[in-house]
Amino acid sequence: MMDNKYMLKVKDLHARINGKEILKGINLEVKPGEVHAIMGPNGSGKSTLSMVLAGSPAYEVTEGSAEFNGKDLLAMLPEDRSHEGLFLGFQYPVEIPGVSMVNFMRAAVNAKREYHHEPPMSATDFLKMMREKRAVVELDNKLASRSVNEGFSGGEKKRNEIFQMAVLEPKLSILDETDSGLDVDALRIVADGVNTLKNENNATIVITHYQRLLDYLKPQFIHILYKGRIVKSGGPELALEIEQRGFDWIKEEVDNKEGE
């Protein structure tokens, strides 16, 4: 384990899309074994942060830095960020008709192995691993053999994302509103999957609006994002306060300071 070292270190990160600045100086540090939750009102920059860290070409980083395991994250291609161990679970997972889950995941695993100069995984070993990982998120065998997300319900797509995370074994998982649109049973299965995959060498950043997912995942750190900055950080009690009071008091606090 990388004792006391930061897995992710984001410093004064600014980013824009179509000329509009969305992130206005993000500072965030994540160590192995930690679970961080990022909350905030709509339009505060939560999804932008996840997209910028994953390397979406739609966003332009204008200032600041992001290190991942001591390497310059912002200098890496999106696929290399993935091979280095960064995983992004999308709010709206895409459908890929005509590409079976098995072929899709085997290609992803072997691309990662090639990046790390390892031989490709045999079909037998890969199918054995698929079976094991499928059990983690209670993914139906029929879903695993279908085209990627094609015709899946919202809950099935999210479960599929956690299954992909289980197969790829990332060091840092960023889950962007994985809980949106999930019923209680699907939420529990997704959360159980994330908890089962958690260990002292990996870390998770959960982006969410709701306390209910945090009840399952129990993050140690809560950050409130507003107007493109993390304006408040704390422990689990901060999420409970948001649940009771909403975000208005934080908005007011920040806006008053800005007005001074």
Secondary structure: elements and pairs:
Blueprint: E1 8-17, E2 20-30, E3 35-39, H1 46-54, E4 60-68, E5 71-72, H2 78-83, E6 86-89, E7 96-100, H3 101-115, H4 123-136, H5 141-145, E8 147-148, H6 154-168, E9 172-176, H7 184-197, E10 203-207, H8 211-217, E11 221-226, E12 229-234, H9 236-245, H10 248-259
Parallel strand pairs: 3-10, 3-11, 6-9, 9-10
Antiparallel strand pairs: 1-2, 1-4, 4-5, 7-8, 11-12
Helix pairs in contact: 6-7
Characterise the protein shown here:
With 260 residues, this protein is an alpha/beta fold. Helix content is 41%, strand content 27%. It contains ten helices and twelve strands. It has helices at residues 46-54, 78-83, 101-115, 123-136, 141-145, 154-168, 184-197, 211-217, 236-245, 248-259; strands at 8-17, 20-30, 35-39, 60-68, 71-72, 86-89, 96-100, 147-148, 172-176, 203-207, 221-226, 229-234. Strand 11 (221-226) and strand 12 (229-234) form a beta hairpin. Helix 6 (154-168) packs parallel to helix 7 (184-197). The protein is globular and about 65 Å long. The mean pLDDT is 86.
